Amino acid sequence: MTETPHDPKLAAATDIIFNCPFCNKSLAIDLRGAGLMVTCPDCGRDVQVPAPAPGDTLEEVPTPPMTVSAEALAAAHTKIERLVDSLEEIRERRRYLEHLRTENMARFQQIGGEVEVIQNSLDRIVGLLQAAAADEKKSGEPPPES
């Protein structure tokens, strides 16, 4: 399914012939390419292959028999097994990280509560120091040292 310049000698009867909407280059692609995004060889832009003209059907295009070697099939199955294993490992890791996130959120809430208690204590201390400073200012004498 490659794009080819529109040349009657090069285009097959089962090709969709269309122009690039950006540079107007004439392109041809097999009927099975309808709807695909292809790159225009002239301007390099992505172009969507239009639907076939009325009367052109995919049934007219002979589909070549698909042959897969036993080695290729075994390699594909091995890759699928590895991917399934990787997916399960990723899911386990995600569950673990979600668990850690939940625990950390609880810890952060607890820490936030403790910080609030400390802040309230500091505010009270500052208030007491300010009151003592105001009293000292009024009396003119420093407070007795303990």
Give the structural class. alpha+beta
Order of helices and strands: EEEEEH
Mean pLDDT: 85
Across the major sheet, the strand order is 1-3-2
How many helices?
Answer: 1
Instruction: Let me know the largest β-sheet.
Output: 3 strands, antiparallel
Detail the poorly predicted runs. 1-6
**What is the distance, rounded to the nearest whole angstrom, between the alpha carbons of the first and last residues?**
95 Å
Count of extended strands? 5
Looking at how many chains there are and whether they match, the oligomeric state comes to single chain
As a percent range, the share of strand residues is: 5-15%
Q: Any idea what the radius of gyration is?
A: 38 Å
Which geometry do the CA atoms define?
elongated
Share of helical residues: 40-55%
What would you note in describing this structure?
- The protein is α+β, with helices and mostly antiparallel strands and 146 residues long.
- Among the domains are: 4-49, no CATH class; 72-127.
- It is 48% helix and 12% strand.
- The protein has a 3-stranded antiparallel β-sheet with strand order 1-3-2, with no helix packed on it. A two-stranded antiparallel sheet has the order 4-5.
- The longest helix has 70 residues, at 70-139.
- The radius of gyration is 38 Å and the shape is elongated.
- It starts with a strand and ends in a 7-residue tail after the last helix.
Secondary structure topology:
Layout: E1 4-5, E2 15-19, E3 26-30, E4 37-39, E5 46-48, H1 70-139
Antiparallel strand pairs: 1-3, 2-3, 4-5
List keywords for this structure.
single chain, 146 residues, alpha+beta, three-stranded antiparallel beta sheet, two-stranded antiparallel sheet, 1 helix, disordered N terminus
